[in-house]
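Let's do one together. I've listed all components of the complex below, 379 residues spread over two lines.
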Amino acid sequence: MNSQDHFVSLLKTHQNIVHKVCNLYMDRHSEREDLFQEITLQAWKAFPSFRGDAKFSTWLYRVALNTAITFYRKEKRSPQIYMYDILPESASEDGLDPIEIQLKAMYAAIGELSKIDKAIVMLYLEDYAYQDIGEMMGITANNVAVKMNRIKTKLKDEAKKQLEQSYI
Amino acid sequence: MDLDQFKQQLNEKLSTDHNGRSGEEIAQMLGKKTFSIIEKLKRSIQYEILFGLIGMILFAILAFSTKYQSIRTYFGVAAVFIFLFLFLLNYLLKKTIKLNQVQRPVISNLTNYVLLIEEYMKRYFQFTMAMIPICLFFAGYLGYHEKKPIPELDKIIDVGQLGFKLVLTISIIYLISFSIGIYYFTKWYLHKIYGKYVLELKNCIKDLQEN
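Okay, and this is what the predicted structure of the assembly comes out as:
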């Protein structure tokens, strides 16, 4: 198996990571497509430096987050990111499944976070230890813990606000 | 309602909302162009090197083929200036390639991006500003001291019987206004292209460093 085939096979297996980053950072379908392509290209260019001493998924997370954070879009777009469209419709008859609504509110709250906070939340959702998150972000584990506490409070407040709005 | 309550559901939703790509689709993507600003910078530097080389050769040919001393000096100096600038561009190109490493920790990657773009902006500004005295004042000085008469220039001075002093005064006012205009235009142009982006990256760094 040559290098390109090896890379394609690894990326195909781990493509959920890239999709996850795209869904979190971009609100429109076309933007997600652009970011997916960009992450794929950047990962392919950086692939020779992947030595295999780290997990491919961890390496890919680093590449994907770096690419998403520095992704350059020429045209000005709405800074607010609502991800309602990627959630399934409520299963209940009246369309007001409380769990689903809360989940949507939490999604919307995550969409309001800064690029850096989104990256930390994503790694946290993946169950990475604070030490690993710190290594990927280039900060200490303590700093990650402090940030994570702050993010949780921010999300709680924002989700509550979103929830109140959805009932108006 | 907090994040941990929905951890699993959020994680699942984010990672499963896609159609999935086949190996062929991923392989096809590898040949496409990138949107990365660093890649754009790299391409821009490569074009500048190419046009710099062409300009240097043309200027050198002009310098050696003309019969006027002033034109020879002007294009000769410009060719040497471009030759020196090519070294700087080559240095920037190497640095751009070296620093474009997305597998580094986020904070290092962001710092590299900011340093690189700021260095590019600084050099671009310096080069543009250095070109003003060479292109305008140096050309004027050489034209003024040209021993052989240049019929085209004499024709301009004679138009409307303006007289040499008046033409000289108008030229100096024009040169000063043009220089000031170029100074502010270059600043505005660089800020328009890279300014907001650099600011956004700096905010991300600040966000990361905050305790």
